[in-house]
Amino acid sequence: MKRKYFYSTAVVSFAVLVSAIFGTSSYNANATPINHSIHVNGTSLLKVNDYDVLYCTPIGPYVNEEKRLMVPLRSVVELLGVKVDYNGKLQEAKIKWNSNEIVFQKGAKTYKLNDTLAQMDTQPEVIQDAFVIPLGVLLRSMNIPFEYMNNKVILKNPAFDQSKIFQKVIELDQGRSIVDTPSALDIQNFKLVEEKNSASQTRGIITVSGLNRTGSAIKEGKEDLHIIGFFNQTVEMDADFASVDIPDRKRPKVNQEDRVSQSLSYLKINDPLQYMLAAGRTLKTKNERK
């Protein structure tokens, strides 16, 4: 039997992250929800500290025609904790990080960094009323630390754990207290399908795969490919602790360079999806916790 945490925690509507990839990558997805449905076959392109950002409303991280990673502006506020002023009339966004300020405008291949005009090879877009910007321009211009590894932008900064979303993630993700290796599994492909019926019920399922990159086999009982669904009012994830009436899920051995997959399904009424996050880690066994 599959166990989930189900929280009625007034999680505010979020959206997800900023953008720009420096090499080629792929996002084989139709990521835009159409008629309240979502059908995404995608590749993880963005990781913030311990969590991959797989999807955010209204469109997940994607690579545009110029091979740059694009993400909705609102995620800059929610995931990274930076300050943003958005002028809808001008379709212009001002983003502040430490002592730097950068200004993007829809359709413009120029931006202002601390009032100095600069050029870029792509341009911000507006998709379903969401202002979408290139992450790489923001990261490089404002000296936000990042890595690019395995076709994925990886942001590592303790300050991000203090942002709106990750404070809630850390509060609710009880498995963090028994994590052995935080990045044992490289989150790779995922499939997200969500449909809304005539009774205003929304059924969804996401399946995520991870690759063992530890250099050795992951022993049985340690794998934890952990999926977190953020909704407008609730948060769902599999529990990482057994209870009296529900045993822990099976955690198979994962050989070196082998893949493992997990799924999270949900049924919602008037509680729209905001984010899908995933962590690819291993847990300490009961004996290791003694």
Short description:
This protein is mostly beta strands and 290 residues long. The protein has four helices and 23 strands. Strands 1, 4, 5, 15, 16, 17, 20, 21 and 23 form a nine-stranded mixed beta sheet that branches.
What does this structure look like?
- It is built from 4 helices and 23 strands.
- Strand 9 and strand 10 form a beta hairpin.
- 9% of the residues lie in helices and 46% in strands.
- The strands form 4 sheets. Strands 1, 4, 5, 15, 16, 17, 20, 21 and 23 form a 9-stranded mixed beta sheet that branches.
- By secondary structure, it is mainly β.
- The protein has helices at residues 74-80, 135-141, 164-172, 286-289, and strands at residues 4-7, 30-34, 37-43, 46-48, 51-56, 62-63, 69-72, 83-87, 92-97, 100-105, 110-113, 116-119, 125-127, 130-134, 147-149, 152-155, 179-181, 185-196, 201-212, 223-231, 235-238, 259-269, 273-283.
- The longest helix has 9 residues, at 164-172.
- The model is unreliable at 1-35 (pLDDT under 50).
- The protein has one domain.
What sequence of helices (H) and strands (E) makes up the elements? EEEEEEEHEEEEEEEHEEHEEEEEEEH
Net shape = globular
The percent of residues in helical segments reads under 10%
Low-confidence stretches: 1-35
Gyration radius over CA:
19 Å
Summed up, the helix count is 4
Portion of residues in beta strands equals over 45%
How many discrete structural domains?
Answer: 1
Q: Please, what is the average pLDDT?
A: 85
* Biggest sheet layout: 9 strands, mixed
Structural class call reads mainly beta
Annotation, overall tally of beta strands: 23
Give the CA-CA distance, first to last residue. Answer: 27 Å
Protein name: Peptidase M23
Organism: Paenibacillus jamilae
